[in-house]
Specification:
Elements: E1 3-9, H1 15-32, E2 36-40, H2 48-57, E3 62-67, H3 74-90, E4 99-102, H4 111-120, E5 147-152, H5 155-160, H6 162-175, E6 183-188, E7 200-203, E8 207-209, H7 214-225, E9 235-237
Parallel strand pairs: 1-2, 1-3, 3-4, 5-6
Antiparallel strand pairs: 5-7, 7-8, 8-9
Length: 239
């Protein structure tokens, strides 16, 4: 039986954090000589849905999910189960699905204490520096922009393809030479009407785009953000 292992994490606030999970997956793969990948429930890619699709396409008969988050996170445990249940129903096409199970969370492993003790046994580096950047005046300035775009990266929208939507919007803004002074983009957590996702909201127009696909994401940039014409046939709100 071919086993695949997925390290399932939540979004972190910087790309380096995502890379660390991928590096951990690569190290575990080498140690076990088995396929091990990193994936994310929200805010980053690949999503759990995409990672399960990849494992299935690669012929996995068994997939073990490892909740990878410190400290322990009940949200992670809950949404792993919900996301898997949705994937099982959504991918029911008559072909067999791999058996999926979940391990105890990484945060509950006694070996973490050993890892901390090992770190403390290494030479420590004294901290130096000044608090100037912490108090930089730049952090008191609201960036100049014409419109503020919110891209939902919550767990349901991520399952529905929000990672691809965010990448499409970013690429189209670059292609149309629209920078932060024109359009400020913020990736958010859940924006609430999850069943309408992926969601993209444009302010100050209060225009909510629902069920956004890559084609609509491109239109949002070229028609609404660049040309100032909201796509009323695909939007909800007062815009």
């Amino acid at each position: 039986m071919t086993r695949h292992i997925l390290l399932v994490a939540r979004s972190v606030t910087h790309t380096g954090g995502h890379d660390a999970v991928h590096r951990l997956a690569a190290a575990v793969s080498v140690a076990l000589d088995e396929p091990v990948r990193a994936c994310f429930l929200d805010g980053a890619g690949p999503s759990l849905h995409d990672a399960l699709d990849t494992a299935r396409a690669d012929g996995a008969h068994e997939v073990v999910l490892v909740p990878t988050h410190l400290p322990p996170d009940r949200y992670l445990d809950t949404w792993i189960r919900r996301a898997h249940a949705h994937w099982t129903v959504d991918r029911a096409d008559g072909n067999p699905l791999p058996q999926v199970s979940v391990s105890p969370p990484l945060a509950a492993q006694p070996a973490l204490a050993t890892a901390v003790i090992t770190a403390l046994a290494q030479p420590a580096t004294a901290l130096t520096g000044n608090p100037g950047p912490f108090r930089s005046p730049a952090w008191s300035t609201i960036t100049r922009h014409q419109r503020h775009v919110l891209v939902c990266r919550g767990p349901r929208c991520t399952a529905y393809g929000a990672n691809h939507i965010a990448d499409t919007i970013s690429g189209e803004l670059t292609a149309n030479q629209l920078g932060d002074d024109d359009i400020l983009v913020t990736n958010t957590g859940c924006l609430i009407p999850c069943n309408l996702g992926p969601l993209v909201v444009v302010h100050p127009d209060d225009t909510w785009y629902t069920h956004v696909d890559p084609e609509l994401a491109t239109q949002i940039v070229t028609e609404h953000l660049r040309d100032g014409r909201p796509i009323t046939t695909r939007a909800q709100g007062r815009g």
